[in-house]
Each structure stands twice: as C-alpha cells, then as structure tokens.
C-alpha cells in the first residue's frame, strides 16, 4: 500500500433536488387504466389521453440522465467506496497517533486543569 491518497473521482456539484413528484406517474397511469376498464375511454383515445404520462416519464428519464456519475459502473462506485473507507481508516490512525503524542497529552492536561 502506498502513501499516496486514493484517486477519487470528482464530479460537478450536486444538482438541485429533484421535484418530489418527478416520478409520480403511477397514479395517472392507474386512473387511465381504470377509465379504460370502466369503458369511460375508448381504446382509440388512449394514445392521446396518455401523452401527459409519457411526457412525465420522458422528463424523469432526462432528470436521471443528468444526475452526476450516473454513467459510472457499479464496480467503479464500489472501488471509490473502498478507497474512501481506507482513507478514513488512515485518518483515524493519524488522529489516534496525534492524541497519543506527549505534547498533545500535556496540552489537554493543562487545558483540563486550567478550567
């Protein structure tokens, strides 16, 4: 293992949160299917009546496609997680080593005794 920091893929800043209803097309689809099953809507009109649902789905696909790192493979993501976990462990070890240094112990003891 080297002392070099792990390579971490950086991406653009995260996008604004997706709207809460961005993927909420199931109720619309359900309502459309109910209308068809109750014969309130003729089959020839389903294409026209479902256009707003298709538009919602297309917008949702576009939002997902624009999320950062969506093109990264699962293995790339797992590797980044492993690298970050290793980095955290190294940092914990360094913090522990610093806390164990006599000069730090003296400073902590003086601060504790002064209050």
From TrEMBL:
| Keyword Transcription annotated | yes
Entry function? Component of the Mediator complex, a coactivator involved in the regulated transcription of nearly all RNA polymerase II-dependent genes. Mediator functions as a bridge to convey information from gene-specific regulatory proteins to the basal RNA polymerase II transcription machinery. Mediator is recruited to promoters by direct interactions with regulatory proteins and serves as a scaffold for the assembly of a functional preinitiation complex with RNA polymerase II and the general transcription factors.
The UniProt similarity line reads: Belongs to the Mediator complex subunit 9 family.
Q: What is its main location?
A: nucleus
The entry's localization annotation reads: Nucleus
Instruction: Name its species.
Output: Choiromyces venosus 120613-1
| Residue ranges the record marks as coiled coil | 67-101
Q: Which UniProt keywords apply?
A: Activator, Coiled coil, Nucleus, Transcription, Transcription regulation
- What is the name of this protein? Mediator of RNA polymerase II transcription subunit 9
